[in-house]
Design a protein that fits this description.
five-stranded mixed β-sheet; 12 helices
Length: about 375
């Protein structure tokens, strides 16, 4: 059995090598020299004497080297302001090939791979520096649109060379100028009874606006206290108020009917000669079913106001409702007249509805969904 598994493992490894070999050869034929080199080097790590991989590596690496050096030459001649980034990518790929070959002992004996670490470092510095200077030029203009462009450049700088100069401070500065600031006022509810539920709704709205990046990364939302502490001068004010709501309107419906069994059942016995015989007939019962519905609904008014002009730029109302329902039943008469479903309902009991606070929360859930969907659509353009 042990020999069987050993043979099976050898077959699996051989099969893997064959697949990798074909993949490396296929990449070479397609002109994807980098992939061909990496695949061949990976195979030669485990099988230094793999003939086809040796041939592929010897052919693919010089072609990959030539291809990237030609690209670098063309980039140097380019007038593109950000040409250093393309050059950087070429050096990154060349060094990836160097590492793949350097980590394979047999590969290093077959070919001499070139290390472009210094060139990559210089290209990385130059690429970051060009973006950084461009961002400074745009920031100096001082308007929101150019600050957003500057922010994008600085984000690229941080990707290319994290911590370059004072990029973190510049990112904060750019964002401050680039961001569209919106203060969301406390949701108004006229009843003290529902303040707790309203806080739950308010907290959900605030959490969504503070953490949801799908809106627009340049739109920043503040609660009034936060805006006051930071001395923020907002662009928009969002006012949310429940114009109307009703909680716990109860409707009870009852329906009584006489039901008759579908089939005849034994209802007694009668004397027939010296013996008794069963008597069959259909039976009836008076079945009463009750339904209690507790209705809750509300209407939220949203106004978005321009802070400078005090003009309402958009207004919309969002409605929501929640109906809690309980059903139960009882009967008088012969239970055999009832269906299985009717019997199950008779085992149910009248339940107490949720507390008013919970009902408020439930009807506000669809309002929350409609409100946040509207805000997402509205602020996507800012």
């Amino acid at each position: 059995m042990k020999k069987y598994f050993t043979n099976l493992s050898c077959l699996a490894f051989t099969f893997f090598l064959l697949i990798c070999c074909k993949s490396a050869e296929k990449s070479l034929k397609k002109g994807d020299f980098d992939d061909s080199v990496i695949r061949a080097a990976d195979k030669l790590k485990g099988n230094p004497g793999h003939g086809s991989s040796v041939d592929i590596l010897k052919e693919a690496y010089p072609l990959a080297l030539e291809q990237h050096l030609n690209d670098i030459k063309l980039n140097k001649e380019s007038e593109d302001l950000f040409k250093w980034e393309a050059e950087l990518q070429s050096y990154v790929k060349l060094n990836r090939l160097f590492q793949a070959i350097d980590q394979c002992g047999s590969c290093s004996k077959l070919i001499t791979a070139q290390n472009f670490e210094k060139e990559e470092k210089l290209a990385r510095h130059n690429a970051a520096n060009v973006r950084y200077k461009e961002a400074q030029t745009l920031l100096a203009i001082g308007d929101r649109e150019n600050a957003r462009k500057a922010y994008e450049h600085l984000e690229t700088v941080n990707t290319i060379l994290p911590g370059f100069n004072d990029v973190s401070k510049k990112l904060d500065l750019a964002y401050e100028v680039a961001s569209f600031k919106v203060v969301v006022e406390q949701v108004l509810v006229t009843s003290r009874t529902y303040q707790l539920s309203n806080e739950y709704f308010q907290d959900r709205v605030n959490e969504y606006l503070q953490t949801n990046k799908r809106l627009n990364k340049f739109v920043r939302f503040y609660i009034p206290e936060e805006a006051a502490n930071l001395k923020i001068q907002p662009d928009h004010i969002i006012r949310l108020q429940f114009d109307d709501f009703v909680v716990g309107n109860t409707l009870v419906e009852k329906n009584t009917e006489v039901v008759i069994s579908r089939d005849s059942v034994k209802v007694g016995e009668k004397q027939a000669g010296r013996s008794k015989v069963p008597v069959y007939d259909k039976v009836t019962a008076k079945f009463t079913q009750s339904r209690k519905t507790v209705l809750s609904a509300g209407l939220l008014d949203m106004q978005i106001m321009d802070f400078k002009t005090k003009r309402v730029v958009t207004q919309e109302k969002f409605n929501g409702e929640y109906n809690w329902m309980c059903e139960w039943a009882h009967f008088n008469g012969d239970e055999r007249a009832l269906t299985a479903a009717q019997l199950r309902k008779c085992k149910s009991q009248e339940l107490l509805p949720p507390a008013p606070q919970q009902l408020f929360i439930e009807f506000s859930k669809p309002i929350y969904e409609r409100l946040t969907s509207k805000l997402q659509t509205y602020y996507a353009k800012y």
